[in-house]
Design goal:
The protein is mostly beta strands. It has helices at about 1-20, 90-95, 165-170, 180-185, 350-355; strands at about 65-85, 115-135, 140-150, 190-195, 200-205, 210-220, 230-245, 245-265, 265-285, 295-310, 315-325, 340, 360-370, 375-380, 390-400. The chain is built from 5 helices and 15 strands. The longest helix is centred in the first third of the chain and has 17 residues, at about 1-20. The protein is globular, with a radius of gyration of 22 Å. It starts with a helix and ends with a strand.
Amino acid sequence: MKIRLLFVLAFCLSSILSYSQQPDSTLIHKKNGISKPNILSTHPFGIFFSRIQGNFKTHASRKPHLQIGLESGNVWGTQIKTYIPNDIAIRNEARKHPWHQTQYHFDEEALDAESFELQIDGIIKGLHINSSFKIAKSHELNIGLRLFMLTRGKSPFSILTGDEFIEYFHANVAGGKDPFDRTVFGLSKAEIKYVDRNGNTLELYNNDFFVGGLETNYYYYPEALSFKTFHVNFGAHLGTNLSKYNTSMDLGVSTNAIKTIKLNYKSYLQFGFGMGALRKNFISLKSNNIDFGTNNFIAHLENALEYSYLSKGGTTHSFGLDFYFQTSLNKQDEGEYIIPIRNPDAHHAWGHGVTNLYKNNNYWTFLYSFTKKATVTVYLQQDFSVNNNPDIQTGVSVGFNLL
């Protein structure tokens, strides 16, 4: 939290300073803003609906642009059933006990309650294809496609995101031996099961592939709010979800700002700040969509920092750090009276797959890119808060002009 506040303060300070700085005609701009492909996490619920991320470009793409990105993220959560009592008196009684002890104070068979079941295991692979077109001065249209597949994550295709590497890291570097009971249930499996509170069922197994949906984003880059070293853009977002588990349309808005600080004639820093909100299932295209959270509105904040320098060969090398924050999928008040039932074989962090649905989530992304005629980016993402995003996610993308 303190680190995120420092990012915001640094951005605000640099933005204020931009108004007192004289335009610097020698400032190097070899690329359009901060190099950032799709870095949204392969969250096991998030992949089924649209999400918004920061657009840290300084201006609309002058030429048609295409970006293709691949990502791989390891997700895990032990099998668990959770009750949500209907009776107010039972809810108030459940509030008196820690979530991991509530099951011992109530008779599961006699509960008047809604319930949902969740089990998460596997490596989610994602493919994002995004095209950008300038439709008028200061106006841009983006059209994208997102596709996903669940796999076991065997080497050599998932070296850093495979179960074996993650458990080796836990045992020898941080976390301790088997902190999440992965080895208890077996490594390198692929199975996601979810039964929502309405009885709708989602099941994914090894190599199951599906189309997540289409993304349509419109961005406006107002010249009146843009200066030599400071730029702003506003976005309107329409997501069309196409999987059989969620066929619907999402609607959202966003605003983003980018501040550039020259270090010398070959290097500079860029700060990005973005925020937005999304209405999930603004239009439902079928009646039995899976319930992926009781919060209809999802908000986000994003901070980015990038250092870039121009090499002798004319290539711009960029090193970036990005922090993404998103509000909870379920209403947080409900999390105070849920009654999760522990799987008898699970002992460590057994309820996190459910309790984290009631928490705001966040993750850090470390990026490196090089830009000449095209931009190639690789990234490593970490969920330090352990809140249902992948333990480790990696990605690679390439972006280039079509003309």
